[in-house]
Amino acid sequence: MTAFLRKNLVRLLAFIAMLAALPAQAQEGRLIVEQVKILGLQKTKPQIVQRYLSFRAGDVLTPELIEQNHQTLQATNFFKRVEFRAEPGTAKGKVVVIIEVDERRRPTFEFAGGYSELDGWFFSPLGVRFDNLFGSGHFLGLRLLIGDRVTGANLRFYQPNIFNSSANFQFDADVLGRQIIHYFDQRQSIQKVNTAGVRLALSGSRGIGKFLSGGYQLYETQPASFARFVHKKDTLYAFPDIIARDLGRKQIGSVWLRLQTDTRDNPFFPRKGVWGALSIEQAMGREAKFTRTIFDGRVYQKIGAGVLALRIKAARASESTPYYERFYLGGVNSLRSFDERSLTPVGYGTKLFLSNLEYRLPLEGGGLRQPRFTGVLFFDAGRINGLKEIIGENVVKSLGFGVRVKVPVLGVLRMDFAYPEKHPDDFHFYLTLGHSF
Amino acid sequence: MRRQKKIHLLLLLLLIAEAAAQTPRVISILAKPNADSLSVSVQLADMFHPKIVNTIRSGLPAVIRFDFRVLETPDREIQQALRSLRIVYDLWSDRYNLRFGQREQFVPNFAELEKICHNFEEPHLLSLARLSAQKNYQLRLQVAVIPISAKQDQQLRDWLAGSENTAESAPGEDRSAEFRLNLNKLFSFFWGKKERPFGASEWASSPPFRVE
């Protein structure tokens, strides 16, 4: 009896597998892709275009699927024009999809700008990018950076689908002069730290690989031996030990691994889903040995007419971590209602916890998909080791409200008004780009 | 040799004629008041290039986009009105479905479909309350036939307003939000040759009209 069941179960499974393997047949009301023709390619290999398509011969075809693929191909920046059209296939319901493209032959020149948690406002007055180098789908870009607290250049090479796999390779080389903010006796000072280095990264785009990325980075840092106070133009030469030990040229080589997930329904205004990452970095060089672990998780859920968004960031670094690789607290993308990094202890922190809770209510235009004007109520709470010595408390909380306005070119412009929980009269106003998380 | 040259010339002329016939043509536009609305009648030609016909016959849709602009004469644009007509061929019932806003119509063959599309009527283009009885107006129109989805008709406006202009870094990294402006597109917009959207007609104008 058992043998009979086992034999028939095997047959049943084989039958199901055969059904699943059969190409989709044209049924009434359903269109099936018979063939995909790509016209207009001169330097780009057809398989490069095929990689970006989410349908193949035998798949069910809908106008929505074509719209989606059209957007994907346009976003590659490989082509000046992409047009999808069709021809009837050899049988009723079968469709020959024709993709006609006009290749971009010149590199793209860019002007960019933005706000970075690390470097403040920055601009790239000129950047040049080759999105489809030699027609192989490789990206090569070079850009100059000038900003509040950064000056330098970045070279990036990106190769999707290396060796025809689903893995992607990225190489970055940077030469940067960064300004690090310190607070000594609640006085803000700036110290210049020059860095130059390379970063190699591998990430996946399909299967289990899309949850994983990792790489190696090697860079050299050279912090200045002094810091300038911002308001009174005096200079500090005698740094506390925790900073002084990391002065001088240092070469840091580290490997890192990141586990990540993204189930958000819309990356620009998520209504539900999760975005998160756990990253571990281990520096193993002769001049620096340290470990850093960072967890950053974000949850989005539609409630009523708006969206409730929660972010939790927890990070830990070993005591041997150089101060410029440690954590900070305070500022527009951290804990609002305080100046940038003003809640950070001298020599920066090794344990950080930060949570931001926001209720985002679309007020005008585009509904929940792409609102043009959004009102926000928020609550931030955070702690970092050494916080009690700065503010007399272990946890700092703040409340506030803000608006997000979608504007041409810049994207989302963010204005936040934030109040510390203990001193509601000490309000801060922030103007920056993008949602807070 | 001379005969070969003649054949080449003929082929070239045919190619030019074929290229000219690729885009729709606006024959006439007539705007007139209709109760409290401005109504418009448009006569069109060469609407269906073989590429569009093939797309429709495969069962996928095609969209005819009408871009109307109301001008206060001599040349001040005061209003834009966009209309779309979606055409789908139902392979299994062998009939064509036309959808214009909330209105829907079925036609049994392509000749009938062409007839309807070549004589477009919109009785409520815009409210007359938006226009002054003391002024002269003119209506301009550009028609484009777009295979499958109107979203294939990329406009600079979409590119400028696109949310992808703000990119954000991965979680766990120091957060950064940035915008990027493609200078090639910007320069070609301001200083480049003004090209018509692909598959679009030339702009055509109605005779001047008043709404009194």
List keywords for this structure.
heterodimer, A: mainly beta, Porin, 18-stranded antiparallel β-sheet, four-stranded mixed β-sheet, 11% helix, B: 212 residues, alpha+beta, Immunoglobulin-like, 2 domains, three-stranded antiparallel β-sheet, 11 strands, 25% helix, 42% strand
Structure classification of chain A: mainly beta
* Cα end-to-end separation of chain B: 66 Å
* Percent of sequence in beta strands of chain A: over 45%
Number of DSSP helical runs of chain A: 5
Number of E strands of chain B = 11
Strand content of chain B: 35-45%
> For the report, how would you describe the main beta sheet of chain B?
6 strands, antiparallel
CATH homologous superfamily identity of the largest domain in chain B:
Immunoglobulins
Which overall shape of chain B is indicated by the principal axes computed on the Cα atoms? globular
Q: Which regions of chain B contain 5 or more consecutive residues with pLDDT less than 50?
A: none
Q: What's the average pLDDT of chain A?
A: 90
Low-confidence stretches of chain A: none
Radius of gyration of chain B: 22 Å
Q: Radius of gyration of chain A over alpha carbons?
A: 26 Å
In N-to-C order, the SSE pattern of chain A is: HEHEHEEEEEEEEEEEHEEEEEEHEEE
Strand line-up of the largest beta sheet of chain B:
6-5-4-3-8-11
What name is given to the CATH topology of the largest domain in chain A?
Porin
Task: Supply the CATH class of the largest domain in chain A.
Answer: Mainly Beta
Give the CATH superfamily of the largest domain in chain A. membrane protein fhac: a member of the omp85/tpsb transporter family
State the secondary-structure class of chain B: alpha+beta
What's the count of strands of chain A?
22
